[in-house]
Amino acid sequence: MTADPVFPGESVDRYDIRSRLDTDYYAVFADIPDADRAVWERAREYVDEVAPMMTAAWDRAEYPLQAARRLGEYDLIVDGIEHPALTRMSPLAAGLVNMEISRGDGSLGTIVAVQGGLALRTLALFGSAQQQERWLKPVADASVLAAFALTEPDHGSDSVSLETTARRVRTDGSDAFEWVIRGSKKWIGNGASGGITLVWARIDDEGADDHDGVRCFIVPQDSPGYQGTVIEGKASLRGIHQAHIRLDDVRLPADAVLPGTRTFKDASTVLYATRSGVAWSALGHATACYEAALSYAMQRMQFGRPLAKFQMVQERLTHMLEDLTAMQLYCRRLADLELAGALRPTQASLAKFHNTRAARRIAATARDLLGGNGILLEYGVIQHMADIEAIHTYEGTESVQALLLGRDITGMSAFV
User: Fold this and answer.
1) What are the C-alpha distances in Å from 17 to residues 3, 170, 288?
2) Which of 72, 84, 211, 242 maximizes the CB count within 10 A of its CB?
């Protein structure tokens, strides 16, 4: 904090509450391998470089594309995806990247989730050798921005019911054909950023073996008929643009389809993998809020003593630490299970379910503890509080996670 003794009633003009405190009460990350720690440090360097830019961008609801491209230059987008063309990053290192970047800025965390966790993972899992040769490296280094278009205006939690269609069109009587894509998508990160969009669509081709199947297509955003409109008026994740996309009979070559995609289960495979990342992202947001609250309580004087000396404040800090430590334990165990090849999709769902809920509690307590200063963007808490609302919803809402878990533990589906 800084002091100005000139004006009565204003002994402090600003509090220093955004510095890292490296909170780790149970030493959850004390024994991480040196290689993973080096990746973590690289993520910290990146956050420190772009933080001022992102604070201003969030305030103005602008998407600084140079920040997204710097993520690729720091090689922080690969998200633990295993592929010979990509830098190897362990599940723990990938989680720490998600955590640290979201601790700095939630919009940046969403860029990692979209560009790496969704788009790059889809290409690596399901793309042809030619598609991977063309797109993997440019997406990994963010020289090409990529979107993952599954959600539709009418289909969010029930995205399995998607209505966007892909038709084969033959014009010369031969076996040669083009794809024609028609439909609408919404809430698509990077969907209006000038790169490519991985569009999931239902096949409309009576008699074909993939009729009514769900497949994924690489759609350049400059394709005729592709319209991506930035969604305005967001109160969350304001430093990245999401798009409302309309595909008006977009024509694509036959090889635009990712050959490894056949059913909605393929999309689910990608979503399951990214839920671990959301759990880590929630931990990053919560860490920032807890540490801001603790620092503020140590610096802020009221009634002649620091807030930290009040019993009520200490109890609130303890509740926050309780949640934060549990979140850390969830995340570390997720990484260990994934490394061992033993992570089940519903275990990732439980971590996402717990951690986004806990992050909301921590953010609300931190905002309250900061009093009026809690609503100022310069202190970060209100921004994290708003951004947590988005990650609480995307990659499967709280209700969807509960139904997935309920089906797993009872053996009975409650999905309608």
Assistant:
1) 15, 63, 9
2) 242
Tokens linked to 100: 């640290």
Q: Is 252 exposed, middle or buried (0-12, 13-18, 19+ CB in 10 A)?
A: buried
d(CA 373, CA 240) in angstroms, rounded, equals: 25
**pTM of the prediction?**
0.95
Is the pLDDT reported for residue 173 higher than 80? no
State the Cα–Cα distance between residues 90 and 413, nearest whole angstrom.
34
First to last CA, the chain: 54
State the SS3 of 401-414.
HHHHHHHHHHCCCC
pLDDT at 2: 55
- Quick check: 6 pLDDT over 70? no
The 10s digit of each residue's pLDDT in 49-70 is 999 999 999 999 999 999 999 9
Judge contact between 366 and 320, C-beta under 8 A.
yes
Reduced DSSP (H G I as helix, E B as strand, rest coil) percent helix, strand, coil of the chain, to 5: 50, 15, 30
Which neighbouring-strand residues pair with 2?
14
AA letter at 137: K
Q: 330 is written with which tokens? A: 């969830």
Residues 6+ apart with CB under 8 A from 153: 184, 185, 186, 244
Alpha-carbon distances, residue 297 vs 185, 290, 312 (angstroms): 45, 11, 11
Across 303-324, average pLDDT? 97
CA 415, CA 412: separation in Å to the nearest integer?
A: 9
How far is Cα 178 from Cα 170, in angstroms, rounded to an integer?
Answer: 7
In angstroms, the CA 416 to CA 413 distance is: 8
| Those residues with Cβ within 8 angstroms of residue 50's Cβ, 6 or more apart along the chain or in another chain | 64, 67, 70, 104, 105, 108
| H-run or E-run covering 129 | helix 129-140
Q: How many whole angstroms separate alpha carbon 121 and alpha carbon 77?
A: 10
Q: Are strands 196-203 and 165-169 parallel, antiparallel or unpaired?
A: parallel
Kindly tell me if the per-residue pLDDT of 301 is higher than 60: yes
Domains annotated for the chain, with CATH where assigned, are 15-19+266-410 (1.20.140.10), 34-140 (1.10.540.10), 146-262 (2.40.110.10)
How far apart are the C-alpha atoms of 28 and 157, rounded to whole Å?
33
